[in-house]
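Input record, target 12 of the design panel.
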C-alpha cells in the first residue's frame, strides 16, 4: 500500500501535478516527510498539504474490519491451518485439535521426564495414514542427543495401533518415513535447517522435531550472553520456516536452576509491602525453562512436563487458545498416556514453576525416556 501512486488517489489535479513535479510519486514518498517539509518543498499552503495528506493516508490505510469478518476470513483460509493430533484426548481438546501448524511448540522439562517419548509419538502420528488420525507424511527428526529409537517407535505403533501395524510391511514403512539427522555442532545444524525449506515442500514433510535446542547451544562452550545472538537468528529462522511450510515445529527445551533474584520477575511471585518489593517463598524445584525470555516469547505453545509428589504431569503453560491446564500422565509401552482427560486449571506460580521431585520411577522402553 505504501507504494501506491499518488496520481491514482483522487487528489485534485493541480496538487497531484505539483507532487509529480517534485518527484514525490508514491504514498511512501509523501508520508515520509513532515507537513512543514512538504509545504516548503511544494510551495503551497498548510491547508492544502493537510487535505492531501489526509486523502493519501485514507487511500493507503487498510479498511477497518469487524471481528466477524476476520472470523469469516479465517474459516475461508482454514485449509492453510490444521493440527497434528497427539492422540491424548484431553490435551487435543485443550489445544483445539492438537499441535498447531505454522508455529513453534515447545516441550520443556527435566531429564528423564518423557520429552523424547512425546516427540517420538508425534513423529509416529505425523507419518500415520490419515484414515487412522495421522497426517500421512514424512518427518524430519533432528536428534541432537541420540535419543531417537526406531525400535521404540515401532513398539509404540504396535501397542497403540495394532490393527494397522500388524499389516505386512507397515511397521517398516512408518519407520522409513522418519528421517533422523544428528548434527555434530551448531554450525552443522544451522547448515542443515537452511537446506530444509525446499526439502519440506518437495518431500511432503508434515513435522519437524528438534530434540533438543538446548543441547546444541550447550555444546558451543560459550557464556549465555554470547550465545544469545546465535539463538536470536535461529528463533527468527524457525518461526519463518514454520509459517512458510505450514507444518508444526516441535522443539524440546531443558531446565536450569532458578536464581534467587528471578523469583520476583512475575507479578504473582512478588508483593509490595510499605512500597518495597518483598520476595515470596521460594518454590521447591527452583527450576525454570532454559534458553531465556526471548525464546519463551517466540514459542506459541509451551508444554511443561514435570514430576510432582511422585506423579508425572503435563502442563499447558502457554497457549493462545486455552487457560493453563495440568494433566497427570504415565509412560507405558504404548507411549505417553493421560490418567485423566479432565485438566486441572492452574493459577499463580504453578503455571511457570517446574518440579522435578519424585521421578525416580523413570522407565526405559528400549530408548531414553527423556
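The sequence produced for target 12 reads:
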Amino acid at each position: 500500500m505504501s507504494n501506491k501512486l499518488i496520481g491514482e488517489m483522487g487528489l485534485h489535479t493541480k496538487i497531484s501535478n505539483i507532487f509529480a513535479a517534485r518527484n514525490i510519486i508514491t504514498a511512501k514518498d509523501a508520508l515520509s516527510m513532515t507537513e512543514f517539509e512538504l509545504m516548503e518543498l511544494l510551495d503551497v499552503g498548510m491547508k492544502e498539504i493537510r487535505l492531501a495528506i489526509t486523502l493519501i493516508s485514507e487511500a493507503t490505510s487498510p479498511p477497518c474490519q469487524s471481528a466477524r469478518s476476520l472470523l469469516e476470513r479465517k474459516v475461508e483460509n482454514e485449509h492453510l491451518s490444521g493440527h497434528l493430533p497427539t492422540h491424548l484426548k484431553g490435551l487435543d481438546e485443550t489445544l483445539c485439535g492438537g499441535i498447531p501448524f505454522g508455529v513453534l511448540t515447545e516441550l520443556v522439562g527435566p531429564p528423564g521426564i518423557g520429552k523424547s517419548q512425546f516427540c517420538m509419538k508425534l513423529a509416529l502420528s505425523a507419518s500415520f495414514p490419515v484414515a487412522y488420525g495421522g497426517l500421512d507424511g514424512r518427518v524430519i527428526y533432528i536428534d541432537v542427543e541420540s535419543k531417537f529409537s526406531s525400535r521404540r517407535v515401532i513398539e509404540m505403533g504396535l501397542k497403540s495401533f495394532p490393527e494397522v501395524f500388524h499389516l505386512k510391511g507397515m511397521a517398516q514403512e512408518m519407520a522409513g518415513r522418519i528421517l533422523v539427522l544428528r548434527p555434530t555442532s551448531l554450525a552443522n545444524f544451522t547448515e542443515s535447517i537452511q537446506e530444509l525449506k525446499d526439502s519440506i515442500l518437495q518431500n511432503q514433510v508434515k513435522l519437524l522435531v528438534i530434540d533438543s535446542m538446548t543441547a546444541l547451544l550447550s555444546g558451543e562452550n560459550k557464556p549465555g550472553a554470547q550465545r544469545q545472538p546465535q539463538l536470536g537468528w535461529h528463533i527468527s529462522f524457525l518461526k519463518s520456516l514454520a509459517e512458510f511450510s505450514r507444518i508444526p515445529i516441535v522443539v524440546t527445551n531443558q531446565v536450569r536452576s532458578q536464581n534467587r533474584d528471578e523469583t520476583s520477575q512475575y507479578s504473582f511471585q512478588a508483593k509490595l509491602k510499605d512500597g518495597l518489593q518483598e520476595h515470596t517463598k521460594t518454590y521447591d524445584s527452583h527450576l525454570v525453562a532454559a534458553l531465556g525470555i526471548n525464546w519463551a516469547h517466540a514459542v506459541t505453545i509451551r508444554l511443561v512436563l514435570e514430576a510432582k509428589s511422585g506423579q508425572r504431569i503435563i502442563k499447558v503453560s502457554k497457549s493462545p487458545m486455552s487457560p493453563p491446564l495440568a494433566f497427570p500422565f504415565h509412560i507405558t509401552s504404548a507411549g505417553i498416556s493421560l490418567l485423566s482427560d479432565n485438566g486441572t486449571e492452574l493459577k499463580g506460580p504453578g503455571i511457570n514453576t517446574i518440579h522435578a521431585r519424585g521421578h525416580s520411577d523413570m522407565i526405559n522402553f528400549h530408548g531414553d525416556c527423556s
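Residues 224-245 form the longest helix (22 residues).
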